[in-house]
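User: Show me a protein chain along with its predicted structure.
Assistant: Here is one chain, sequence first, then structure tokens.
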Amino acid sequence: MAFDQVKPLKGYELVMEQIKSKIRNGEFAPGTKLSSVVDLAASFGVGRSTIREALSALKAMGLVEIRQGGGTYVSAELPKEQAPGEGNSLFASAESIQELLEVRKILETGCASLAARNRSAEDLEAIGHELKLMELYLNDEAKGEEADVRFHLKLAEATHNSLLIPMMESLSQRLHDSMRESRKLWFYGERAEATRLLREHSDIFEAVREQDETRAHEAMRTHLLKVENVVRRALSESNT
């Protein structure tokens, strides 16, 4: 008689399942603010990192919203429960994100270096404007994401290459999608992560402003490699 192997749940998965159950059975109603990470850690008898991983997973499922500096809330509109056998859509999307990141590494590192060479004062102002918006919306993930996408598009425009610009524009919606999904895979509820992301974009901007092509190329590559590592780690964990 054959049986499927049973994999022991990790600590964060046990926490996640308990909170998920309370959300699904209505004990935690939509819009409810959950206890702080510190209080949840004490309640479950686990470390804060375990709670953060559990909340990150719940966010990926669309069950909670994490507001920087404002706590964690049950989503106002809960997604439908996944039917057995449907698979893990999050990690299916992660594989798609990884493919897009491979394309972005090829395309956007070139855009960054070419923008450093060809950018005008007007281009620099436009890119800098989106960077300021990213800083302004550190606590608003949706608006920060939109400014992030525009930053990359403005960078492409600064190349003044008639082929690169439409190629990046054609990827615009995919960029939106990949950023949204990669943020689900990463715990972006912590301000430190949003600040780190802003710093990486600032490094790209400074290299373009100083017209340092090599530095611009490497700054973009470093940024995309960090995002790619998050996706790879998520895929690796889903297969263990």
